[in-house]
Amino acid sequence: MARKSVIPFGPQHPVLPEPLHLRLVLEDERVVEALPSIGYIHRGLEKLAEQKDYIQDAFLVERTCGICSFIHALTYCQGIEALLKLEVPPRARYLRTVWSEMHRVHSHLLWLGLLADAFGFENLFMQAWRAREEVVDLMEVTAGARIMLGMCCVGGVRRDLTDEQLAAVLKSMDKLNRQFDDLIPVILKDYSVQQRLRGVGRISRETAYERGAVGPVARASGVARDFRETGYAAYGELGFVPVVETEGDCYARMEVRLAELYQCLHLVRAAVRKMPSGPISVTPKGNPDGEYVSRTEQPRGEVVYYLKGNGGKNLDRLRIRTPTFANIAPLLAMLPGCELADVPVIVLSIDPCISCTER
Amino acid sequence: MTFLNAIFRNLFSRPATRRYPFVKREPFPGTRGQLAIDPDRCIYCGICAKRCPANAITVSKTPSKSWTLDNYRCVICGYCVEVCPKKCLTMKQDYFSPK
Amino acid sequence: MPTLLIVAPILFGILAWLSPTAPLRTLWVVLGGALTCAAGILTALRGAAEFTLPRWSDNLAYGIEIAVIAVIFAISFRLKDWRIGLLAVAQMVMAALERLLPHAALPPAATFVIDPLSIILILVISVVGSVIVLYAIGYMRKHEEHAPDTAAPTGRFFLFLVGFLGAMNGLVMANDLRWLSIFWEITTICSFMLIGHDGTDEARANARRALLINMFGGTAMILGGLLCAVQGNGNSLAHMMSAQALIPIALLCLAAFTKSAQMPFQSWLLGAMVAPTPVSALLHSATMVKAGSYLVLRLAPAYQGTRLSEIIAVAGAFTFAATSALAISQSNAKKVLAYSTIANLGLIVACAGLNTPLAYSAAVLILAFHAVSKGLLFLCVGAIEQKIGSRDIEDMGGIMYRMPITAMIALLGMVAMLAPPFGMLLSKWMAIEAAIFSPLVLFLIVMGSAMTVLFWAKWIGRIQTVSYHERYDAERLPASMFAALIILGAGVILTGILAFPLIPMTEGLVRGAYAGLALPEASFKALRTAGTFAAWPIFLFVGLGLLGAFFAVRRFSAAVIRPPYLCGENVGGTDVSYSFRSLMDKPDTAWSKSLYLKPVFSEDKITFWANLIACMIILTMFGMIGAL
Amino acid sequence: MLQNCKDVTRENLLTEVASRLPLGYRFVTMTCVDLGDAFDVLYHFDKNYELSTLRLRLPKGETLPSVSGLVFAAVLVENEIKDLFGIAVTGLAIDYQGHFILADGAPTAPLLKNPPPPTAPAAEGAPKNG
Amino acid sequence: MEALLAFVVAWKPYVLAAAALVVAPVIGALLMGLDRILTARIQGRVGPPLLQPFYDIVKLLGKAPIALNRVQVVYACLHLALMMLVVVLLAMGQDLMMILFVHAFSNIALILGGMSVRSPYSRIGSQRQIMQMLAYEPILVLMVVGIYLIFGTFQISRIPAGGVPLLVQLPLVFLAFQMVISIKLQKSPFDVSTSHHAHQEIVKGITIEYSGPYLAVIEITHLYETCVLFTVVALFWAPNPLVGLLLAALSFLFQIVLDNACARLTTMWMLRYMWTLPMVLAVSNIAWLYLRNGASLG
Amino acid sequence: MAKLARSPWVVHYNCNSCNGCDIEFLACLTPMYDAERFGVLHVGNPKHADVLVVTGSVNHRNARVLRNVYDQMPDPKVVVALGVCTSSGGIFAGCYNVFGGVEKVLPVDVFVPGCPPRPEAILDGIVKAAARLGAKIRGETPPPVEKPKAAFQPAAVPEEKK
């Protein structure tokens, strides 16, 4: 009787799109202990960034993670611009906001699909990803690629949008809005979804704060933190208020993300409508020197870039702290006591991006 | 069970699927598909090779001039197109298909 | 012959006890077992019979009864347990009263009756019992090596083990109530002595509890006899049955419930599992506990069609369902077997309570099949325990490799407990068909069967879990244990194959039992239609499946073998290994424990409430027949 | 240079960290920078979107006391620093013993400016036995 | 020709049984193919060709066998053999209760096969499958009991043709039976022990350690089982086979819609649910039959 | 006989990928692309799979996992490598923890280039892989995959004067 079940969960596991290993100790099917192990996807990007020049690094950091790629590049560029004391033209700031929010839409829909996959709701997975194709197409139309936009560069953005494209964006937003209206209230009301999410993986506001939770995980527990509130890029001019829930369970995390989907549409529309005219980039001069910590809000939460230049073309140190890295500690507080069937749901409820985490 | 609306709508409408190998969608005008070079205008300066973040391009001047792209390394960022002094590099819209 | 059945085992038991050396003891034990076995088979072949002892034997019986009760009183004195003492005193008083009070003059009844039901019991006792005794020889030799210092001498062990067979034979043949209660109390004493054999605190405490509860039953039995006599209904089972004296019958059923460890009396049987395994096999599954269900079954025609019958059916079915549920949370192999035993006894009681020819037949078949399979299972567990030093089911993984023969026989026993084409399933099917017009009983039986499947499947799964080996370990067991396992294993297979033809064969038995009642002919016909069930497709397809499997695994080689799926983190690539690389790249062994559902089915969650309900059922039983 | 940056020493690191927590500072992350003969270990905290940093100058070869006892969230990043810079971190709440994100066979302390030569030959092909 | 006819008449049950053995998996495969297409359409996709299950099984049979031990293969074969036995017994009009038992043991063979390997996910899947059986077996038994109460026999062959359709007398049991089918087909919300399409926390659960030809054996068994289940549904309107078929088709559609309208729920939820709503439905239907038959409830 | 290639069941393992290829692979299963039309099922379990889809380059910790997943697949089987990282390491070539493309650990049947490859390209790749699988089932040995690196050299122009 003394011996408990010990099972590996991951790295190769169909409900985990990315390799993460959890060593689970079970009593019947209840999780008694869960310890994570990562490193299956560690490349050494931070070191490589020291070897490439700071312009190329924008493309490199974009590939930290394929889901929030644009915002990685944005964070990096904002950091370099701060070191170079570059003033980014307003139109570039607005375009960056537009693409950031598109990325958030694509990321949240993707997450919704994966979550549905984790609790065995294949149809929801299909519907979420079907809606996602709309925004992915939109990204391809505006930026020329489905996922790796490559649009953010030091000093601004690389491509301008014509008025027709902006109109197409608005039209797409309306279309997405209709699709969301079809999908989201239904998901929130669905009995089986509620059964699987309500009360599962709950953490209190205090735990979330102490353990350094960020993004929707923190906001679902009532920690009203969203770095967009600081008004980087064009967020300061668009009237941004973070979405907050208080329950702290998986359902609240879903509620936050689903509400953010609408918010993203709103932000894109507002940014397109207010889009100033003018140049889209300035040419960077000189080389970065000094230290700077650049932060933005990714779909998964706050991302932190520490940049240190030494006056040369190459950076002295580039450190990336991604939101999932911060959310693993809260995850460890959620897992013990849950059912094995809830493990993938809880893991996905932090929207893990292991690729980000390990760089 | 609230999913019934979507279910019956889908059941009684045409599938959303694009039957890909039989029906091909025209690429969007701005799509970055694959890199192409106009060899006539290339001066083999090597700037593209130096700037390429993925080191996918090699340019050699000796013994003979050559410009080589490793398509299995190129990340299709289009940076080389921007930096090319002669604008001899272009981005084609169709994607590079495996051999 | 009946004398031989009773006296021979007791005699050889005494001889074994007195023998100075172990080989001599073995000789006596083997002889005693063989003789009992032969006598049992001969008795069965000679068929039904009656024996009436001369008048003077009444005094003898009275003397023996007083002596037996006195022994128990002495034991209670040594145990300093006033409750047992009080019960003993009460028994003595009632025995005396029964003798003193005037009786109505009834035609004298046979002292011993051998009818088809007794014959089945005698066969079980003398054949299965002898085989278990045979097993005990080898088992006890090993047991002596590890037994605690407090353990009683092995000679005494065999005195009670072999002697018990005689008492049990007497019990199932007795028609006279006094002889019945004499043998009843002797089996109680045997059980008490054997449970306490190891002399540990736990063993002694459990032995005392067994004595107390069985004494309670014995008291109810003597009270029943007393009432029966006082009401002028004679002092034999036959009289009692023909008079349909419901209150005495109910009291005897109560006694039977304690002996068969029906809820709420199940605790003693669970405690009895501390005894050496042959004891569990012989007394606590194959024979002694059957005495209770035997009695209920024997009395069944007497209460046919009464409310008592219905409530007995409910009581039995409830025990079946509740103990099956309790077995789920157990990982102690013997406890699982104990619960399963109680459950099956409950099923027999339920069938007796359903009281139709079909149910009666089912009960008899369950009684016989269960004795063989469960006896076998206990023996297997004993052998496994001696080898691996644990009786925890979770530790039994891999025994398929370490002791393949025992493991295969154990698997056979378990499969026989639940799968087609074996008899247990068939009897259960008959029970369900018989219960079809008693919804509550039906519901309980169905639920119980479902849970039975759960705990057996878990166990079978654990035992047969095996890694691939080119060939298995050779297994060494003492010859006597080995022989016992093989004989009982063969018995299980035989009853499995014969199960289908056996059903119509029970018709005579059932007709005999219900001879006094005018049951509709259709109810007997059900038995015959049950027998015409086409059995051959079952054998054909099971055979086909096994044949297919044979061809599929024939080509097996190490090349076919791959390690299990461990999320890609297997250690050792293509070697079969259950380790996975975990934190810090260190290997860790994957393990999955069986499901025990502790939060739902644990003993401390269920037992209290189940006992409460069972008490209420028994109170209702007495209330219904107007005894309260 | 860095906003709200304060120098600490090994001795007062833990008390400095402990004194910030009750003030509502949230632990963000740590950064380690190789300066050649020493490390800069930066502890980033956040309060109301305001970053504040503790800078610990750690000479090479010295051990780093873990703050994971005070701030559990730091345990992962401390393990990472241990892996990538080869700094001995003492008192970790969960110690991955240098195998947090680097496996057997990976280069050791790769983020040092002059990383040590790989001790084991870099795994070529599949490590057959894991 | 006449001789053949005479042979068929004389050996009718056996001929029927043999025919059923051949036809059942084909029907099962077509149903599965249709299931996949309809599921795809519901999800807005085109889906595989109708014959996809055949392709799958042919491919599986052609793959190299791999396994963990011999025992699991034995159980896979028993799983199939017992399910074929179910088909044969049904076709021969044998005892319903015995058919139910054989069917249960076919599943137990699969469970034991899943347990016989020391693979954590396989074992957990097996245990969940036991819980599934615990959840649905009582309802099946109640269904069979209901049939007995109506016809007075378990022997299918002695069930009179014509008369009032079962559906009229066992409407609530029929509803409960739909849930059982959903469990048996391993569809959401009950696909806890293994799943045909969706991903699971225990990967493929009970079938995870079977591959190639052995998996094909299990898939074929599943085809048989699918066919049996919908045959039973059709029998609920036996007097008119066309209506019966329509009933089966509706039930089939319902299963697919349910699968696509629900998330997978947990094992314990399933147990709680099955022992409440469907159980109450079935029990009250049976109670009604008892009362109508005038039997006492004691 | 072409029917043999009609049921490629896929298992996917993410090595060092940045997720880009993974989400594009998953997108292939969704309504717009619907790989199930070709009989593709994403089974997620190597023991049931015929096709291993790998994304990303190989590092020291996931090499063993990749190898194990491959070893647990029953023969015949094919490997599809998605994205440039699987071919060469892509933009990450030169990272200290990247020791190259997938072919260092496994025999690869189809390389699908792109960063990330478009779903159409992935479908092309899977269909090609299925064809190779069919050939393997028939017992043929499909031609070895050309190491497709030096792929594109449009102008090795010996033009002397410009």
* Principal-axes shape call of chain F: globular
Tell me the count of domains of chain F.
1
- Estimate the strand proportion of chain E: under 5%
Biggest beta-sheet profile of chain F: 5 strands, parallel
Computed CA radius of gyration of chain E, to the nearest angstrom: 19 Å
Share of helix of chain E, binned: over 70%
Radius of gyration of chain F: 16 Å
Mean pLDDT of chain F: 81
Order of helices and strands of chain F: EHEEHEHEHE
Structural class of chain E: mainly alpha
Number of domains of chain E: 1
CATH architecture of chain F: 3-Layer(aba) Sandwich
Distance between the termini of chain F: 56 Å
In the CATH hierarchy, what is the class of chain F?
Alpha Beta
For the largest interface, the chains and their residue counts are:
C-E, 64 and 72 residues
Q: Which secondary-structure class do the elements of chain F indicate?
A: alpha/beta
How many helices of chain F? The count is 4
Sequence of strands across the biggest β-sheet of chain F: 2-1-3-4-5
Query: pLDDT below 50 for ≥5 consecutive residues: which ranges of chain F?
Result: 155-162
Account of the protein in words:
The complex is a heterohexamer of chains A (359), B (99), C (628), D (130), E (298) and F (162). Chain A has 359 residues and is α+β, with helices and mostly antiparallel strands. Chain A has helices spanning 45-51, 56-62, 69-84, 90-118, 122-143, 163-189, 191-197, 205-210, 215-220, 250-274, 323-334, 343-349, 354-358; strands spanning 5-9, 21-27, 30-37, 152-153, 156-157, 289-298, 301-310, 315-321. Chain A is globular. The termini of chain A are far apart. The model of chain A has no long low-confidence stretch (mean pLDDT 87). Chain C is mainly alpha-helical and 628 residues long. Chain C contains 25 helices and 4 strands. Chain C has helices spanning 2-18, 22-46, 57-79, 82-100, 116-146, 154-173, 177-195, 201-230, 237-243, 246-259, 267-271, 277-286, 288-299, 307-328, 333-354, 357-388, 399-402, 404-418, 423-434, 439-464, 479-513, 521-531, 536-554, 598-601, 603-624, and strands at 49-51, 112-114, 579-581, 587-589. In chain C, a hairpin with a 5-residue loop joins strand 3 and strand 4 (587-589). Chain C is globular, with a radius of gyration of 25 Å. The two termini of chain C are 43 Å apart. Chain D is α/β, with parallel strands linked by helices and 130 residues long. Chain D has a domain at 5-90: NADH:ubiquinone oxidoreductase Nqo5 subunit (Beta Polymerase, domain 2), CATH 3.30.460. Chain D contains 2 helices and 6 strands. Chain D has a 4-stranded mixed beta sheet with strand order 1-4-3-2. In chain F, helix 1 links the parallel strand 1 (9-14) and strand 2 (41-42). The N and C termini of chain F lie far apart (56 Å). The relative contact order of chain F is 0.19. At the C-E interface, helix 19, helix 20 and helix 23 of C face helix 4, helix 5, helix 6 and helix 12 of E.
Question: What is this entry, summarized?
Answer:
The complex is a heterohexamer of chains A (359), B (99), C (628), D (130), E (298) and F (162). Chain E is mainly alpha-helical and 298 residues long.
